[in-house]
What does this fold into?
Amino acid sequence: MRHLSLIAAVALTTACLPFAGLADEEHDHDRARRALERGEIMPLERILARVERDHPGQVVEVELEREHGRWIYEIKVLKPGGVLVKLKFDARNGAVLAGGAQEAGREGTR
It folds into this structure.
């Protein structure tokens, strides 16, 4: 039963992926679009391509947040075997802020 709940949660989260992290304020999508147009953030597609290459699995959540004055992409990936990985990227330049180096080291040991 717990397995079915996890599958349902992942399916629902994936279906809502384009809106994840943008519901806090009514017009967050407009702020994100303006930040992209001003060159303050990279396109999400570039970050997702990197995530897909370096961290195979199912992207289950994407958020674009302001933390300490900078834009951060936070992406959660459900990896094969059921491990949930939380990755953070500087949205301006794509630098890995959390999660990437640790997971890359684990993948390299397989």
In short: The domain at 2-107 is CATH 3.10.450.40 (Nuclear Transport Factor 2; Chain: A,). The helical segments are 2-15, 28-37, 44-54, 100-107. Residues 1-26, 101-110 have pLDDT under 50 and may be disordered. The chain is about 40% helix and 25% strand.
